[in-house]
Amino acid sequence: MEHRSYTDNALSEWMKGHGPDSEIVISSRVRIARNLQTQPFPMLATNQQSEEVLNQITSALQNEELNTISNFDFIPLTELSELDKRVLVEKHLISPNLANESRNGAVILSENESVSIMVNEEDHLRIQCLCPGFQIKEAWDLASQIDDIFESQLEYAFDENRGYLTSCPTNVGTGIRASVMMHLPALVLTQQINRILSAITQVGLAVRGLYGEGSEALGNLFQISNQITLGQSEDEIIDNLYSVARQIIEHEKAAREKLLIESKPRIIDRVMRSYGILSHAGIMDSKEAAQRLSDVRLGIDLGIIHQVSTHIMNELMVMAQPGFLQKQSGEKLSAEDRDIRRAELIRERLSII
């Protein structure tokens, strides 16, 4: 069975919306980690035990309340090619861990891909909800609703003192990881970013790159998330992230205004150079593409470029990734061939405007 609809299109349906402060916040995400009381953690489970987890969660998926949220597609990873799994990672629908190491792993996707539920990843169940723009509270409400439905059908591993039990000790307690993906080019250009990021870590938040822990912050994209899951309530975690993210948004807006007042000719030159290179380059590696796309996105937000939409920029963020490039080409590509195809694809996408 093939699931082309999830890997043939670079942009998930939910990304086509324009959420609050979407010129700075690309997306908001809440992920909830849960485990079943009667089964060992995935890393310790036998093949039979992980299959039993899969069966229990499949049964819980039949709950009629879930149908009021969306139609869901249950996809065992054995039905996906390695390339399809890589594309799902690039679209943030599954984790690299699930794609590479899972036994009896599966993903449950909503029609618009705003809900992604991973089975037998690091934990038995990881419920992820995504919203466009700055909607972290809305993402939490949706994730909590889905979590309640599953909890009514499954016996979660829970301790009265420690809270929800998870494979990794850093997730024990609420099991919540909430994050916002932010585009912060002005703070980088005005050399304020290091001070801002240092302050963030002092209030219990973590800063990561586009693909989470261990990834580089390419294209001035930063993922801000909570580090603490134990000792705080779910609402406290969400409110803390919301408050800090709101302050970062205001700092980025102020930095953009400063650039327009003090360095407008240089910013226009930077933006237009990147737009020109993206429109005409014959070869483009992923790092340069990320930076050039960041410049053009900033140009759109500052009113310097009018002929390109942020919708296209969101699409190119995924289309420029190695997995999607190869999926579109229908074959495995060398690094140089990917760079050539990346440049060609960006030219094509910008030329149809």
Automatic annotation (TrEMBL):
<dbReference type="InterPro" id="IPR014746">
    <property type="entry name" value="Gln_synth/guanido_kin_cat_dom"/>
</dbReference>
<feature type="domain" description="Phosphagen kinase C-terminal">
    <location>
        <begin position="24"/>
        <end position="255"/>
    </location>
</feature>
<feature type="binding site">
    <location>
        <begin position="208"/>
        <end position="213"/>
    </location>
    <ligand>
        <name>ATP</name>
    </ligand>
</feature>
<dbReference type="InterPro" id="IPR022414">
    <property type="entry name" value="ATP-guanido_PTrfase_cat"/>
</dbReference>
<keyword id="KW-0067">ATP-binding</keyword>
<feature type="short sequence motif" description="RDXXRA motif of the pArg binding pocket involved in allosteric regulation">
    <location>
        <begin position="338"/>
        <end position="343"/>
    </location>
</feature>
<feature type="binding site">
    <location>
        <begin position="177"/>
        <end position="181"/>
    </location>
    <ligand>
        <name>ATP</name>
    </ligand>
</feature>
<dbReference type="InterPro" id="IPR000749">
    <property type="entry name" value="ATP-guanido_PTrfase"/>
</dbReference>
<comment type="similarity">
    <text>Belongs to the ATP:guanido phosphotransferase family.</text>
</comment>
<dbReference type="GO" id="GO:1990424">
    <property type="term" value="F:protein arginine kinase activity"/>
</dbReference>
<keyword id="KW-0021">Allosteric enzyme</keyword>
<dbReference type="InterPro" id="IPR023660">
    <property type="entry name" value="Arg_Kinase"/>
</dbReference>
<keyword id="KW-0808">Transferase</keyword>
<dbReference type="GO" id="GO:0004111">
    <property type="term" value="F:creatine kinase activity"/>
</dbReference>
<comment type="function">
    <text>Catalyzes the specific phosphorylation of arginine residues in proteins.</text>
</comment>
<feature type="binding site">
    <location>
        <begin position="27"/>
        <end position="31"/>
    </location>
    <ligand>
        <name>ATP</name>
    </ligand>
</feature>
<dbReference type="GO" id="GO:0005615">
    <property type="term" value="C:extracellular space"/>
</dbReference>
<dbReference type="Pfam" id="PF00217">
    <property type="entry name" value="ATP-gua_Ptrans"/>
</dbReference>
<keyword id="KW-0418">Kinase</keyword>
<dbReference type="GO" id="GO:0046314">
    <property type="term" value="P:phosphocreatine biosynthetic process"/>
</dbReference>
<dbReference type="InterPro" id="IPR022415">
    <property type="entry name" value="ATP-guanido_PTrfase_AS"/>
</dbReference>
<feature type="binding site">
    <location>
        <position position="92"/>
    </location>
    <ligand>
        <name>ATP</name>
    </ligand>
</feature>
<keyword id="KW-0547">Nucleotide-binding</keyword>
<dbReference type="GO" id="GO:0005524">
    <property type="term" value="F:ATP binding"/>
</dbReference>
<protein>
    <recommendedName>
        <fullName>Protein-arginine kinase</fullName>
        <ecNumber>2.7.14.1</ecNumber>
    </recommendedName>
</protein>
<feature type="binding site">
    <location>
        <position position="126"/>
    </location>
    <ligand>
        <name>ATP</name>
    </ligand>
</feature>
